[in-house]
Design brief:
The chain is an alpha/beta fold. The strands form 3 sheets. Strands 4-3-2-5-6-8-1-9-18-16-15-10-12-13-19 form a 15-stranded mixed β-sheet, sandwiched between helices. The protein has a two-stranded parallel ribbon with strand order 7-14.
C-alpha cells in the first residue's frame, strides 16, 4: 500500500484536488444566488482548481445563509409588533402629508420600510458637504458640542493629522463624562497602531474593531464600509468621506505624497429624526462587535424639535440582511425616474438588474448620466467598468470620466426632488459583500445643490463618444471581456 502511494502520489493528489473542487463547486451552486457570480466562481474553480478553492473559501461563502452577523437587539425590534405598528403609522402619515415631495417615488419609501423597517422621517435639516474641507470643520464643531454621547463608525480611520485632531476631541469629551464609542473596520483601518488604541481606551473612549480579520478567514471579504457619526441622538453624518488627510486636499499633503490627486467626495450632515435610524444601525453594529446590549433609551433617541423641512429615509444592507436593500433602492429609483438620473460612483460594476434598468431608462427618454473616475485607484476595477460602457452609450446614457483628480463620491440625483448620498458604490461588492448605508433625501433644495455639484464635476470631465469608444484596440476590448468574467468577484 505504501509503495502504491509513493508511486502514484501525484495522481492521487490530483484526484483529491478535483474531488474537493467538485464539492466546493456544488456548494457554490447551492449557495450563490447571482448567476454571474456563480459562473465566475465555477470558471475559477475548474481552470485554477487549487487557487479557485482557496478564493471561494476566502470570499465566496454566503454570509446571508450562515448568519454569523446576528444582532440581538434587531431581532427583538422585529418581534415587537407594537413598535412595528408605530413605525408603520408614522411612515404612512409622512407619505400622506408630504405627497408633493415624494411624488411618484412612494414605492421607494414603502420598499425600504417593508424590507428593513426604515421609516420616512419628516422635519430634517440636511447639509451637503463637498470634500473633507467642508466635512471636518462642521463635524469637529458638532463633536465639541456633545453632551451625552458620541458614536463613530468608520471604514478607514488614520491616526495622523485629522484623525489625531478628532481623537483629541473625543478624549476631551470622554474626560467630561460624555459616552464615546468608536467602531473601526479591521481591514480598512489596518494601519491603526495598538498604542493609539490603548491611548484612546485609557482616556475613556470605548473602541472595538467591527470584525477582527484573521488569517485565511473569509471575513476579510466582508467589510464594514459604513461611515456613521451620531452625536446626542439628534445630529448625524453619513457619506463617502473616511478619516484621512488625503480627503482634505491640503497642498502640502499632496506634495509630500508625490502629488497625490485631488480627492472629490460628498458627505451629508443630518439634524432631525432621520438620525434615529443611523443610531439604530450604529447600535446594532456596536452590539455585535462589542458583544453588549446598548439599551434603547430616551438619551439615545431623544425628542427632536423641528429643525428643517426635508424628508430623510436611511437605506442600509449587508451580509446580515435578507436582501440587498441598497441595490433594490437604487433599482427602484432608476425605474421610477421620469426626467433624469445623475449617478456618481468611483467603482461601477453593476449587476444585471441595474445594468438593464439604466439602459431601459435611457431608451425611454430619461436623461441618464454617469460620472466615473478618469484617474482611478484600481486599474482592474476600472477595466471591468469600461466593459459596460459601450452598451450604455449605445442606449443613450451619457458617461463622463472625471479628470481633475479621483472622484470617490457615491451619489444619485433623480428628477427634481430625490437625492441619495451614502457609502455604497454602484457595484456588486457594495450590493452583496459590504455593510453599507445611504441617505435618501426628498428635498428640492438638496436636489438642486447635488445637481449643481454633479454638473460642475462634469466640467472637469471627458464625455465619452460612442463612435470613438468603439475604436479602442482589440487587445483592450479583449482584456475588458476577460476582466468582466470575474467582475462579480472584484
Amino acid at each position: 500500500m505504501l509503495n502504491f502511494l509513493k508511486e502514484h502520489w501525484q495522481s492521487i493528489g490530483i484526484v483529491i484536488l478535483y474531488g474537493i473542487t467538485f464539492l466546493v463547486a456544488m456548494k457554490a451552486l447551492l449557495e450563490t444566488r447571482s448567476t454571474g457570480k456563480t459562473l465566475a466562481y465555477l470558471l475559477l474553480l475548474f481552470f485554477l482548481p487549487g487557487i479557485g478553492v482557496l478564493v471561494y473559501l476566502l470570499i465566496g461563502v454566503n454570509r446571508r445563509i450562515n448568519r454569523i452577523y446576528s444582532r440581538k437587539w434587531m431581532s427583538n425590534v422585529r418581534l415587537s409588533e407594537r413598535l412595528q405598528d408605530y413605525l408603520r403609522r408614522e411612515n404612512r402619515q409622512t407619505l400622506l402629508e408630504h405627497s408633493d415631495l415624494v411624488s411618484n417615488k412612494t414605492g421607494i419609501a414603502r420598499l425600504l420600510f417593508r424590507d428593513s423597517l426604515s421609516p420616512l422621517t419628516p422635519d430634517n435639516e440636511t447639509v451637503l458637504l463637498l470634500n473633507g474641507e467642508e466635512k471636518f470643520p462642521m463635524m469637529l464643531d458638532a463633536l465639541r458640542s456633545a453632551k451625552h454621547h458620541i458614536h463613530l463608525e468608520y471604514y478607514i480611520f488614520e491616526e495622523t493629522g485629522i484623525g489625531r485632531e478628532i481623537m483629541d476631541v473625543l478624549k476631551a469629551k470622554a474626560a467630561e463624562g460624555v459616552e464615546v464609542r468608536f467602531i473601526y473596520d479591521d481591514f480598512g483601518s489596518h494601519d491603526i497602531n495598538r498604542r493609539f488604541l490603548r491611548e484612546m481606551r485609557t482616556a475613556g473612549v470605548e473602541v472595538f474593531p467591527f470584525y477582527r480579520v484573521r488569517l485565511l478567514a473569509n471575513r476579510l471579504n466582508y467589510r464594514n464600509h459604513r461611515k456613521i457619526v451620531v452625536i446626542d441622538g439628534h445630529t448625524g453624518f453619513v457619506g463617502g468621506i473616511n478619516v484621512a488627510d488625503r480627503y482634505i486636499n491640503d497642498p502640502q499633503y499632496r506634495k509630500k505624497h508625490k502629488n497625490w490627486p485631488f480627492w472629490r467626495d460628498s458627505h451629508l450632515c443630518i439634524k432631525g429624526q432621520g438620525v434615529h435610524t443611523l443610531q439604530f444601525l450604529f447600535m446594532g453594529d456596536w452590539n455585535f462587535c462589542a458583544e453588549s446590549d446598548l439599551p434603547i433609551t430616551h438619551e439615545f433617541f431623544p425628542d427632536i424639535p423641528v429643525t428643517g423641512k426635508d424628508l430623510v429615509q436611511i437605506a442600509a444592507s449587508g451580509p446580515d440582511s435578507e436582501r440587498s436593500s441598497i441595490m433594490l433602492s437604487y433599482l427602484a429609483a432608476i425605474n421610477q425616474a421620469q426626467r433624469s438620473v445623475y449617478i456618481t460612483t468611483p467603482y461601477f460594476i453593476p449587476n444585471e438588474a441595474i445594468f438593464n434598468a439604466l439602459q431601459q431608462a435611457a431608451l425611454s427618454g430619461v436623461d441618464v448620466r454617469l460620472l466615473v473616475p478618469g484617474i482611478s485607484d484600481s486599474r482592474l476595477v476600472n477595466r471591468a467598468a469600461e466593459s459596460f460602457y459601450e452598451d450604455l452609450l449605445a442606449c443613450g446614457v451619457r458617461i463622463y470620466k472625471y479628470n481633475k483628480g479621483f472622484v470617490h463620491a457615491k451619489t444619485m440625483v433623480v428628477d427634481d426632488t430625490l437625492s441619495v448620498v451614502g457609502t455604497a458604490n454602484m457595484d456588486i461588492r457594495s450590493f452583496d459583500f459590504n455593510f453599507e448605508v445611504n441617505a435618501f433625501v426628498y428635498s428640492r433644495e438638496m436636489n438642486w445643490k447635488l445637481t449643481e455639484a454633479f454638473l460642475q464635476d462634469c466640467l472637469f470631465s471627458e464625455q465619452l463618444d460612442l463612435a470613438a469608444w468603439r475604436e479602442r484596440g482589440r487587445w483592450i476590448r479583449l482584456s475588458e471581456a476577460v476582466v468582466r468574467l470575474f467582475s462579480p468577484l472584484l
